């Protein structure tokens, strides 16, 4: 079984950036040797409203879905970029409500399974 290096970042929602409180709402995983880039997101509206009762849940969901769309094959602003270029753009530091956390690395034989494992461990806790 061959294992390859992958990189991942947690996609987080920080409803009030000045307070720094956050909710993990997704995982972005890139594995260059497997030509793999995928994001999986899920927003818990109750957790979001616990941090910010006035949060626009629909707007946050749209922002999160942009991560999934950027990883897909549909034409869009990042469609012409390489998968690595997309990953770097998606994980670039931002001062917005939805942003990626620091990039971490690991080894995997199956990026889909690793994404599911990370998602369960880091988002669905």
Question: How would you sum up this structure, described in words?
Answer:
This protein has helices spanning 45-51, 57-71, 83-91, 111-122, and strands spanning 4-13, 23-31, 36-41, 98-100, 104-108. The chain is α+β, with helices and mostly antiparallel strands. Strands 1, 2, 3, 4 and 5 form a five-stranded antiparallel beta sheet that branches. It is globular. The N and C termini lie far apart (29 Å).
**First-residue to last-residue Cα separation:** 29 Å
Number of H/I helices: 4
Work out the helicity level: 25-40%
Strand content: 25-35%
What are the defining features of this structure?
alpha+beta; 125 residues; 26% strand; 4 helices; 34% helix; five-stranded antiparallel sheet
Provide a compact summary of the structure.
By secondary structure, this protein is of the alpha+beta class. It has helices at 45-51, 57-71, 83-91, 111-122; strands at residues 4-13, 23-31, 36-41, 98-100, 104-108.
List the helices and strands and how they pair.
Layout: E1 4-13, E2 23-31, E3 36-41, H1 45-51, H2 57-71, H3 83-91, E4 98-100, E5 104-108, H4 111-122
Antiparallel strand pairs: 1-2, 1-4, 1-5, 2-3
């Amino acid at each position: 079984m061959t294992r390859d290096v992958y990189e991942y970042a947690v996609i987080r929602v920080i409803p009030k950036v000045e307070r720094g409180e956050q909710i993990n709402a997704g995982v972005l995983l890139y594995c260059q040797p497997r030509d793999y880039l995928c994001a999986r997101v899920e927003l818990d509206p109750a957790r979001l409203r616990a941090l910010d009762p006035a949060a626009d849940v629909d707007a946050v969901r749209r922002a999160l879905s942009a991560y999934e769309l950027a990883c897909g094959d549909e034409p869009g602003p990042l469609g012409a970029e390489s998968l690595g270029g997309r990953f770097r753009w998606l994980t670039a530091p931002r001062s917005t409500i939805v942003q990626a956390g620091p990039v971490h690395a690991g080894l995997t034989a199956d990026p889909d399974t690793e994404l599911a494992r990370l998602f369960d461990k880091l988002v669905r806790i």
